[in-house]
Write a structure and sequence with these properties.
The chain has 161 residues and is of the alpha+beta class. The protein has helices at 19-26, 29-34, 43-59, 102-113, 134-142, and strands at 2-4, 9-13, 62-69, 72-80, 86-93, 124-128, 146-149, 152-156. It has a single domain, classed as Aminopeptidase. It has five helices and eight strands; from the N terminus they run E-E-H-H-H-E-E-E-H-E-H-E-E.
Length: 161
């Protein structure tokens, strides 16, 4: 588990007990609007997503972390394709918590403390974002990501100090 005590925020690998919380997040209309995959139609689909995420962790191909704020799951963020040259990140957060800096903090923690989940071949971390998701674009820019093409933002890896 990765903690940020002063913000009451923590990241931990997603687990099957998170099905209900993740289902609520992924089916929220505002989250679904910007997500790059279909909105799950039932909790068993989320169970399958979580199982896939656990398998990614076990094979070293990535990780999905639950974002806990005041011990409540309010979102998730993850690293995918971590065994390739271009690892991907993805993230979602309940809209009730948008605009509070939680995702900036969560992704900062993921990128700094989550290096253990990155393979040795990774040279770039990439995020895809909907062109009208201005909050997400600004978030990526604040984290040092640069637009490489419309809707695609990249960060050299490892980050330069």
């Amino acid at each position: 588990m990765i903690h940020c005590q002063e913000a009451s925020l923590a990241l931990r690998p997603i687990r099957h007990k998170d099905v209900s919380a993740l289902y609520g997040i992924l089916t929220h209309p505002e989250v679904g609007r910007y997500n790059d995959y279909a909105v799950p139609s039932n909790p068993s689909e989320v169970q399958d997503i979580i199982q896939g995420d656990i398998e990614l962790l076990l094979t070293g191909e990535g990780v999905r972390m639950a974002i806990l704020y005041q011990e409540q799951v309010v979102g998730s963020c993850g690293i995918y394709d971590a065994h390739t040259k271009v690892a991907k990140i993805g993230y979602e957060l309940l809209p009730l918590f948008w605009g509070r800096g939680l995702m900036h903090l969560a992704l900062s923690l993921l990128l700094s403390e989550g290096q253990q989940y990155m393979g040795a071949d990774v040279t770039t971390v990439q995020a895809q974002v909907h062109l009208d998701n201005l909050r997400s674009i600004k978030l990526l820019q604040r984290l040092g990501f640069v637009c490489s093409e419309p809707g695609v933002y990249q960060l050299p890896w490892p980050p330069r100090s």
